[in-house]
Amino acid sequence: MMQVMDILKLAYKSGIEPSMDLLYEKSSQIPGSFQYNINRYYAQNSWVAEDTGMLVYHYNAKRPEENYLELRYCATGNRYCEERTCGQCKQLPTANCAGKHQTVDVFKFHFTATFLNQFVHNVKLSNQKDEVLAFKYPNAFTKVFPVSLRKRNVLDDLLNHSYSGSMENIFVNAKIHELLVYSLECLVDEKEEGFSCKFLADESGRERIYQAREILLQHIGDPITIKELSRKVAMNECYVKKGFKEIFGTTIFDFYQQQRMEHAKYLLYEKGLSVTDVSALLGYSSISHFSAAFKKHTGLKPCELLK
Fold first, then answer.
1. Residue 46 — very low, low, confident or very high, per pLDDT cuts 50/70/90?
2. Which of 82, 100, 146, 260 ranks highest by number of CB atoms within 10 Å?
3. Could you tell me which of 148, 184, 156 has the C-alpha nearest to residue 80?
4. What is the structure's pLDDT at 177?
5. What pLDDT band is residue 87 in, cutting at 50, 70 and 90?
């Protein structure tokens, strides 16, 4: 049986080991957005291996249009069942079910230089993380890192959520954004479990920040002010802004705008909605305001994503 690093290397070059049985797959290839592939494979033998992540920074100064960042993960020890109506499953075989399968889960997230540029626009580059996001770091590299509890929880959420349609797209966008923040920490040697804001040391404080993010996602088409947001989570406005920045690596406004534009791409490309309809669904007062915001954050005109 192959080891985790072997699978990650194969996934980077040409795909997963062909002898493994595919149980589930999910992918998205929306132009101008990040692209991802999630594959679950049947682990025919018991695996004893650490979950592993890999960051691939591809840089070519002569061909900047080809620059990209990729995140790869291999997680083991999960269990999968095709039948979702079992209720309180005890993982035991029945007359109609062979029980849950132990899996090897492989994730690939591909980010173009154009997509990542939105996070460092007008930002002073102060460390390697910023230089990588801006594609100003001059050398290509591959870095392998362990999968912390925070990263593992995000990967589990991507596999086990119950959303579908537009809500699934909003949820997945937010989770991949969160995973990108956690994964880039390996470039600046930050402690994955520590926070500089003292109130985040308390689980209830962190929970309120996560709650704030969920409220923002629920208001993708109905903008909410920070004042209203702070009231909903019963936290001081300053604490909400500082806590959000520390946990998710971005301001509330930038996160909200980024999520709105990613959802707009989905509605235009996957759902085939008109620019007028998407503008209205996202709560813009005019098509021109929406188009300007879309071009600013994505570098594309909304009509360029229409099929």
1. low
2. 260
3. 156
4. 93
5. very low
CA distance 232 to 226: 10
pTM of the model: 0.78
Q: Cα-flanking dihedrals φ and ψ of residue 115, to 5°? A: -65, -45
SS (H, E, C) the chain: CCCHHHHHHHHHHCCCCCCCCEEEEEEECCCCCCEEEEEEEECCCCCCCCCEEEEEEECCCCCHHHCEEEEEEEEEEEEECCCCCCCCCCCCCCCCCCCCEEEEEEEEEEEEHHHHHCCCCCCCCCCHHHHHHCCCCCCCEEEEEECCHHHHHHHHHHHHCCCCHHHHHHHHHHHHHHHHHHHHHHHCCCCCCCCCCHHHHCHHHHHHHHHHHHHHHHCCCCCCCHHHHHHHCCCCHHHHHHHHHHHHCCCHHHHHHHHHHHHHHHHHHCCCCCHHHHHHHCCCCCHHHHHHHHHHHHCCCHHHHCC
Q: Tokens in use for 198?
A: 């003292």
Residue with the bigger pLDDT between 24 and 139: it is 139
Lowest mean pLDDT among 47-51, 84-88, 218-222, 296-300: 84-88
pLDDT at 24: 83
